[in-house]
Amino acid sequence: IKGILERFKKGLAKTAQLFNVRSWLGRKVDQAFLDELEGRLIQADVGVAATARIIDSVREAFAEKTADEELVGFVKDQLKELLRDPSPDALLVASKKPSVYLIAGVNGSGKTTSIAKLAQRLRDQDKSVVLAACDTFRAAAADQLSIWAGRAGCEIVRGAPGADPASVAHDACQRALARGSEILIVDTAGRLHTQTHLMRELEKIKSVVQRQIPGAPHEVLLVLDGTNGQNAIRQAEVFTKSIGCTGVILTKLDGTAKGGVVVAVRQTMKLPIKFLGVGEGIEDFQPFDADAFVESLFS
Ligand code: GDP
């Protein structure tokens, strides 16, 4: 847990700076204080609804008192409460191999990088991993994925440029079954000429996977750019409506003061946050832990 906390701290330093909790201490909890706190939560992308809830309960419990460690603990608890998720944070593991994880997200969200990070993480746990490069429109992304796959020791199944993504998914399922692989990670396109085309393609890939492997996909993970704020939430709505996401990978939380977007995504989408991307390196990837996350915002 200490390692996780350190990584979070590094990734969320800007949000912590924005909160600047030390500056709260000793101040009177009056309207000016509440307005400022509200502004900081909004700026950090915590979202309007969650921010209003926090401000109301702080007003109720601390109005006209002096802001102290108790108030800090109170706000932390509120955030932890908003992030609480009854489902387990670990990825679902199928009772029969392979477990299939479908990864979706718009281009530029950090999808390729996140897949590489996830594959590396699973390899570090000694799991056998096959990658399906179903984004056949972006040869460069598939090349990049091949390089990562080679380094991590994963097999990659890819089609010729422009090949039917569903047929790549089909071949990858067969390969994973034949090899007895534990995990199949399916990359998907992040942009087609229209949103309808994209969603239709994702649905097609999903149904191919479902036909090949009963119970699959075991997770549908949506990669969202954490610097995108409310836009990320709109994307999540579109994807979830179409392919039914089971969790979110939120990227690029380093280098932005918008770490609060984690709360907004969790609140608005009711989806579990599975991992956070906190840098460009393969190891800059953390399973989400609400307590460690909130603690690092207040350090
Ligand atoms: P894709 O188009 O969604 O596949 O996105 P890529 O994986 O190619 O990532 C787009 C850019 O974002 C690249 O320059 C990545 O290095 C960068 N990136 C991805 N994840 C993170 C992250 O967690 N933090 C930072 N700082 N950069 C990231």
Protein model, in words:
Its EC number is 3.6.5.4. This protein is an alpha/beta fold and 299 residues long. Helices cover 51% and strands 13% of the residues. The protein has 12 helices and 8 strands. It has helices at residues 2-11, 13-19, 31-43, 48-62, 69-83, 111-124, 139-152, 165-179, 195-212, 230-243, 261-269, 290-297; strands at 99-104, 129-133, 155-158, 183-187, 219-225, 247-251, 273-277, 285-287. Strands 3-2-4-1-5-6-7-8 form an 8-stranded mixed beta sheet, sandwiched between helices. α4 runs antiparallel to α5. The longest helix is centred in the last third of the chain and has 18 residues, at 195-212. The mean pLDDT is 92. Guanosine-5'-diphosphate binds next to α6.
List keywords for this structure.
single chain; 299 residues; alpha/beta; 8-stranded mixed beta sheet; 13% strand; binds guanosine-5'-diphosphate
Report the C-alpha radius of gyration, rounded: 21 Å
Overall pLDDT level: 92
Major sheet summary line = 8 strands, mixed
Give the strand content: 5-15%
The residue ranges in which pLDDT falls below 50 over 5 or more consecutive positions are none
Per DSSP E runs of 2 or more residues, the count of β-strands stands at: 8
The structure class reads alpha/beta
Number of helices: 12
Helix and strand run: HHHHHEHEHEHEHEHEHEEH
| Shape summary | elongated
Sheet with most strands: strand arrangement: 3-2-4-1-5-6-7-8
Query: What is the helix content?
Result: 40-55%
Q: Ligands bound here?
A: guanosine-5'-diphosphate
**How far do the termini sit from each other?**
15 Å
